[in-house]
Structure formats: C-alpha cells, structure tokens
Structure of Tyrosine-protein phosphatase rlph2:
Amino acid sequence: MSSSSSSSDPTTTSTTITTTTTTNNKLVICIGDIHGYITKLQNIWSNLQSSTNPHEFLTATIIFLGDYCDRGPTTRDVIDFLISLPSKYPNQTHVFLAGNHDFAFAAFVGVLPPAAGGEGFRDGWREYEESEEREGWFKGEGYEEMHLQGRRWAGKITVRVNAVKGTEYQGSIYDAAPTFESYGVPHGSADLIKAVPDSHKKFLADLVWVHEEDDIFVNTEDGVKCCKLIAVHAGLEKGVDVKQQLQMLKARDTRVPKVPQLSGRMNVWEIPEELRSSPTIIVSGHHGKLHVEGLRLIIDEGGGYAHKPVAAIVLPSMKIIRDTDVSAK
C-alpha cells in the first residue's frame, strides 16, 4: 500500500491481521468530498466506470463520504446527480454519509431528525455562544428553533480570511454562499428553505452518519486481508467507547450541538485502540488530504478547492482514482 500523508501528519501504528486466501469479487468504492463540483463528480464517476471491471462496477457498493455542498458552485446539480444513481444503477448499493457541511445544510432547511425527548436545539447554542458575534449566526425567519450548525451555516462571518487555510470565507464559516446561489437565492436568505426541492430535502434527511460492512477484502503487501469496514465522515474519537459512538451515530442523536465524528480533526485521526485487536478499516473524508496508512483511509484530496482533485479509493485493490485522471477526457 502507498501513503500520501505528509511526514508532519500523525499516523496510526501498524495493525497485525491474519492473511486469508479467500478471494472476493465484491467491489467497494469510497468517494471523497465533492463540495459542489458537478464536473469533478461526473469525471470521477466516468473514471471509476472505465477503470474497473464492468460487471463488478455495476454491482459495487459505492460509499460517498459526505460533504456534497458548499465551496463549489453547483451543489444543486451534485445532489441531482446523486439522487439519480439508484435508478440509473439499480444493482449497485449506494451509501450516502452525512458530512458536517451536509448536516448543517439539513439543519438550516429543517430536516434533521428531531432532538430526542422533544428537547429542541436551543440548549446546544450555549456551549458555543462566545463565537456567535464573530460567526454572525443566522437570526432570520425560523432561527428560534434551529440547530446550532444551521445557524452557523447560514450566518455571515465578520472576518474576511480563514487564517488556517489562507482563503477568504464565502459567506459563512462553512463557505455556504455558493450553495445558496446554486438554488437561486442570496446567502443567508430564509427563502432557501422554499427553494430547495422536496427531493433534495429528503436526500439530506436520509443521510446516514455511519456505515458498517463486514468481510471487506483488501490487498496489502502481506496478501489479501479480510476486514470489517466502518465509514464515517471525519472518524471515530480516541478514548471514547466505540460501541457508544456507533450507537449515537446510528441513532443520529441531534441533541449534540457539534458531532465530533462528523467535524473533528486530531481527535478522530487515528483508529481507536480498541479496534486494533481485529482488522478494521476506518474510512473517512473531511480532512482535506489523501492519507492511506495501514487500515486508516482518509480520502479527501480536494478539500473543496477548485484546483485540487476529488479522489476515490477502490477496494480490494486499494487503487486511487481521481477526477483528473486522463480517462475523464
């Protein structure tokens, strides 16, 4: 296997796992963050189709790792494309994970699962209220019952430059202005709620927070390995019971004002220690880089930048496919 991580990045330690001689033709394709770039999505889909066995592609499990919106100019077209896949490729299995950007989009248009126990979302604002003025949280129509991330997503940030990335914010902390514009409304307008089609709202409402697969085979230098796969947008937290994390993610517990498994950074980078005793692949997007280290797969080479490629990884081969590969032309 190859690794594209920087030497300054944290890495997981190697995992000892048992080699199996079983062959398995199940193709699993994990596609990184799209961030509103329809041409990149179309190209990477074409490249995946042309670089894999036709029958295997048509029966593959395709896992989209989240963040379909924001930054790029064509979020509406991206979601139309994704919605069309089940009818165009009925023998494929399509998994659409929620990214932190999609979670926030869903929060703004009011399609998040309701908070357990009917608690509402206002209590979640308090933990982060010191950021409200700087981030310019949304205060328009309907904000009173809105999840924190919806208010941040549609807010108008008061600083111009993202100092970490060296880029200018596009409307909000989430760079959500292009998403609003793709639906024909200005950033921060409550009119977006009416402008988003019901089919798109259903897509956002149905996004899963975690996906698990058993008996996934991967090629390594030591042979073919049979693994469990857990796909989650950012990763699983270290030092937190994995069963509890998975339970919360499967329940889509929206009482949490900021879901670390969808939006965390260093705390979700590594494979949790308790999963090292059995071969478990953790695959994520979110981190704005391509990092393949042992069974920890981070597939987000594009990071929402116009000049960087969208990437996918194909299992069991571990081959990386990009939208910029020549076969797109």
In short: Residues 75-88 form the longest helix (14 residues). Residues 1-23 have pLDDT under 50 and may be disordered.
